What does this fold into?
Amino acid sequence: MTVSRIPGLGVIVMAAGLRKRMKSNHVKVLHHVAGQPMVLYAVDVALQLAGHRIAVVVGHQSDKVRQVIESGIAGKPGSHSVCIVEQIEQLGTGHAVMQSRPAFYHVDEARPTNYLILNGDTPLLREETARELVRVHQAQSATVTILTAMLDDPGGYGRVIRRQPGGDHGHDITPSDVLKIIEDRDATPVERATKEINVGTYVVSGEFLFDALDKLEPHNAQNEYYLTDIVRMAVAQGRRVSAVTLQDPEEGLGVNTRQQLAAAEQVVRQQIRERWLEAGVTMRDPGSVWVDAAVTIGRDTVLYPNVSLEGKTTVGEGTIIRSGVRITDCVIGNHVEILDSSVLRESQVDDEAHLGPFAHLRPGAIVRRKAKVGNFVEMKKAELGEGSKANHLTYLGDARIGKGVNIGAGTITVNYDGVNKHQTVIGDHASVGSDTQLVAPVTVGRGAYVAAGTTVTQDVPADSLAIARVPQINRVGWAGKRRMLLTGNTPSKNPARAVGEQPKLKTNPASSKVKKGHTKSPKG
Ligand code: UD1
Ligand code: CA
It folds into this structure.
């Protein structure tokens, strides 16, 4: 991403309000839109434009908001210019902006030429639009430039009141026709009928902003210091107020209610899908695919219906993700195949690996190249080496498994003693039979075999066989006699047949000898 910042532009993001209309215990700007807290959308726009500092005004739940902002901007270009200021009492948007003054007034530093001011609750606003607003402000030598939108239903928004053609507004009006912004609650019925609304994005000249804010008065329905009143003040001083109207009014959506939050979510999700379709990703049913804002996807990757890619997930090229898969904060390689209903979190899957259906990767799972994780296999803090397979019904936790290993069905790493977690290590090309428990800490050496049904409690040396089972005893004819005792029926010549079993039931003499086939596990 190339960033071109505007010299001398300070940016202020207002994010201190709580607002009751969300009916939430959480501060509004932390509600997520496409997996990202709302405030970070405005902060991202700020990072791309600010040639001077960025002040984010926080208030309600300031510690949380501060933390979200700090982790959200970490590592991004320009993050050092962000400073977070506190508005202790929320006395209105004008009061919020006032709190940011110290962030820009440093003795040894030139002050901003212009300020871009952003509401923290307009997540659809694009960087290009804000840039255009600054351009118009500069080109028209305006004192204040506002962003407006025409809405069929402008209810709740501040209305933009323009001079009516031919109307008499005295001698002190500016060359532009914007007269003032009036809040919904303060508007007369005639003003309320105006369909042009204030989006809440402003560019204000440096020499004007804070002097004007000092003169604000809270004489309105909410007894607040309204930032919007600076428009009226500029007009009264004969200064120029310019306005840019959005082509697409949707972009100006302000989130005050859950309805508006849902609407914003829909729009952002659709934009994200379009971006990835454009970039060469196939979606079988785009409307049902959820991709969070920070996710990246390689070309020729195919997403089936109801796939969710969340958080900071990255997916490589040519990967296939089947229906009902949810992936959160993972790194997925190229040409991986993830079958239906798998859930992956904070894990890494290397190229050409194969997962699912119903695989569960918990934090710290690493699936190496060409490895296979089959149905009902759960991994946590475990690495499955290149080409290794755990195809069925298995739990691998706190384990390091080498290359070319076969883990039989029903294998369990017994990693927890009730207090501490312990490590299981399995060397390259080892083979673990079905229904094995590996009681950690334990090591199975390179090329070793573990017989099916073994509870491994001691390390297994390389190229050795470990077997721990109760010897099998066959009591010939026992079952038939018992059946006769219980039912009174005489045993048939062929007892197994009498109850519908296969005719060729072999009976082996009692033996505890290890025979060929003991270490076999189902092949998938
Ligand atoms: C504001 C505008 C309105 C505009 C609308 C667009 C004012 C007076 N009104 O109204 O003209 O149409 O946005 O969405 O500015 N905030 C603070 N501290 C405060 C109060 C608010 O930081 O004391 C922050 C909020 O967190 C929010 C932003 O300022 O991010 C806007 O505040 P909000 O209460 O949502 O204003 P609206 O009533 O929507
Ligand atoms: Ca708002």
